[in-house]
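Please discuss these two lines.
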Amino acid sequence: MSLTPHQRTVLNYIGEFQRKRGYSPSLSDLALAFGVSSKNAVAKVVNVLVREAHLEKDPKGRIKIMEHGNETENVPQPMMLPLFGPISAGFAAPVEEQAEEMITLDNYLIGDKASTFLLRVKGDSMMDAGIYEGDIVVVNRKKTPKLNDIVVGVLDGEFTLKRLKRDKGKYYLQAENASYPDMYAVEELQTAGVIEGIMRKY
């Protein structure tokens, strides 16, 4: 039996919920997510997915996605890591031993994979913004830049990582290091993407 579009949507939501949090959604979670007031409506969909062997229930009634060898074979699975915290960066605070949730780094850093690319940083012009040489920045090429965003600027055909600024109606690029001057275009200033995250290994 092929799934209806709604059943497929519910199944995909359950899978994404599990990947992000490390546990399955309850019927209440599903009802809230799909905007229905009765848990019976989502229970019917869940029961169909269980009957068709897309989901299984444990003895306590909790649901999870069933692993099918043919479907998952050779498909890279995201690495899920426990997120603890918060941790104080000031005075010491009691340790929180319970993980808040399970996350995957790609889902956390990247909202739109089709529009995202990575760049390795060279130079120290953005050090006061916490971006150092050797860092990898996460860039969204489709995001509309706003004033004060850190962007990949294209200044007269040359690419550079700077903060987008404006003075008297004219846009320019500003470094986050007092040793570097502001950069104005002679002919044209464009942007190739907006910085959404930074990755760094110690």
